[in-house]
Each structure stands twice: as structure tokens, then as C-alpha cells.
């Protein structure tokens, strides 16, 4: 029992993604192969951007930070999920659950803020090209990244403060493979209407507003590029389209999970898998596959160390 927050429950049972042994092993093989293939690719993106001086622009600096956030995000819930595929007693401690919730929202909130910063960077590059190099300097880039992390921390700590003051008396089963606010509040032994409303605004409404602002901003930039001169227009438009794809991939599951009442729906686990496991690693990959400069830099770096043979 935890006297500090009147909590009797000391651990939570995670029901996981499947109950049958055969399905669990199949899922383990799928996620394990996915990580073996995609995870090194994301590490390679970061190394390539830091290694190649041709990729020293702010846009690639932000991409490296996005890839780093996604890598960190993928170590919050999947490791325990993979271990639980071989465990009959799928449990997580109360403190472990709170820690998982904190880092999930800390990194997710930081990534949303970073995507907003990347949109602002594209706005300055397209609409203020003559002043871009002086306005977006190294200090500005680090300040923007630091503000993104600070915003993510504030968002996450609000969620944690609201959760740790809730009493949990049982039951202690979470119908998912990780801890999140939508699951935990339903187990509290008290009326959680006001807390759910605050969490809905803090996670759902803010996420939806950021999503709409990003779509509007990139839409306006595409319209401006279409009406402007042809110099560099194709490359800038391609970058904006790539950012829009990443925005849809990142925000769609989050909007589904948090922009609704905290009740169970049939597709919850499927969306949660894409939200916490698949999409974070796919985001930088989407960007890389649509960017010839990064692909060329990767080949040069791998070729230098004898890992890539030029034809």
C-alpha cells in the first residue's frame, strides 16, 4: 500500500494484445523483425546528418532531433511488451506504470512541439528567404529544440500530477499492453469527471489544435509556392508534402485516442500499437525515402567505411 497518495494497488495487470500462445509468438516475431530492420535505419539517419557537413542546415538538424525523439519513444512501451509475450504473469508496478506514462507523454508532447517548430522553420525559409540564414542560426535552433522538450515536460508532468493523486483500490487490470491515462482513470476509486476533462483538454484538444494549425500552415505554404517563382519551388513543395505526411501519421492515432471520452473501443489496441510502436520509427524513414540528399549522404558515409559499394 502507498500511503502518500492513498493507493492500495501496488501493481497493474496488463492484459496485452492477445491471449493465445501462438498469436503472441507471431506478434513477437513481427515486432522483433520490425525493430531489427527499422531501428538501425533511424540510428543511421542521425549519424548521417551529424557526419555529412552538406546536411548542416536547420531542416536536417530538426530531422535528427525528430529521429532521436522517435527512438527514445520506442523504448518506453515496446520492450516490456516484447517481454510479456513470453510471460504468463503480465504485470507492471505502480511506479513503473507512472514512469511509463510520464515518458510517453513527455516524448510525445516534445515531438508535437518540434513538428510545430519545423513548420515555423519552413515558413521562414519560404516566406523570408533573404533573412532566413540570419534569423535561423545555431542558437535559434537549439532554443527551439529546448523549448520543445520543455513544453513536453510541462504537458507530461500535468498528467502525472493528476494521476498520482487518484486512489486505486482495485480492480487493477488494464486492457492494453502499456499504461496510459485513458486506462488508468477508469480504475480510480473516485469520481474522475473533472480530471478527465482536464486531461482531455491537455492531450486531446491541444493535439487537435496543433494538427489543424500544421495542416493550415503547410497548406498556405503550398499555395504560396504554387503562385511563386519556379526557383527551388519543387524541392520546397516536396519537403512540405513530406511534413504533411508525417503530421498525418503522427497525429491521427493521438487524436483517435485522446479526442473522445475515456472509454474502451474495439480499435483501441490496434491504434495503440501504431501509435507507440510502428509510427514513431516510420516517421524519419518516410522523410528519408523522399529526400535524395540524405540518401546520397548515407551512401557516401557507408561507402567510406566499406559498407556500401558504388556501382
Automatic annotation (TrEMBL):
It is found in: Cell membrane; Membrane. Its main location: membrane. The keyword DNA repair does not apply. It is a multi-pass membrane protein. InterPro entries: GPCR_Rhodpsn, GPCR_Rhodpsn_7TM, Olfact_rcpt, Olfactory_Receptors. Pfam families: 7tm_4. One of its GO terms (molecular function) is G protein-coupled receptor activity. Belongs to the G-protein coupled receptor 1 family. This is Olfactory receptor. It comes from Alligator sinensis.
